[in-house]
Amino acid sequence: MANKKKTIGEVEQELYEVRQRQTINKIKDTPTKLDQLPDPKKHQYVSFVKSGVRIVACLLGFAGMYQVGFLGLFLAELIGIYEELV
Fold first, then answer.
1. Are 76 and 53 in contact (CB under 8 A)?
2. What span, in angstroms and rounded, lies between the C-alpha atoms of 29 and 73?
3. 76 pLDDT higher than 60
4. Residue 14: phi, psi to the nearest 5?
């Protein structure tokens, strides 16, 4: 059986087809429902709330209310966990 040499055009066509199949596979793996995508506005809002709680907690700590300040920092961490789930 003789080896058939491929022309540059045939090689380019094969490479194009491989890239096209890879792109199609990537598209199939992406979520198609919008409700599966994260909501950037809600994430930003929760992030602002978390930052506000941290600032207030630090101010309370500076004022000498250490227990309340630490409680605020703990609450901010819980909000941070929720933030990542949004």
1. yes
2. 39
3. yes
4. -65, -45
Tell me what the mean pLDDT of segment 9-31 comes to: 70
What is the Cα–Cα distance from 39 to 47, expressed in whole angstroms? 12
Burial of 12 (0-12, 13-18, 19+ CB in 10 A): exposed
Q: pLDDT exceeding 70 applies to what percent of the chain?
A: 76
Q: Which two tokens stand for residue 21?
A: 């199949």
Q: Which residue has the tokens 């909000």?
A: 79
Distance CA 77, CA 46 (A): 12
C-alpha pair distances (Å), 24 with each of 11, 17, 37? 20, 10, 20
- Domain spans in the chain, listed from the N-terminal domain onward: 8-85
Contacts of 38 (CB under 8 A, 6+ apart): 86
Q: Name residue 52's amino acid.
A: G
pTM, two decimal places? 0.57
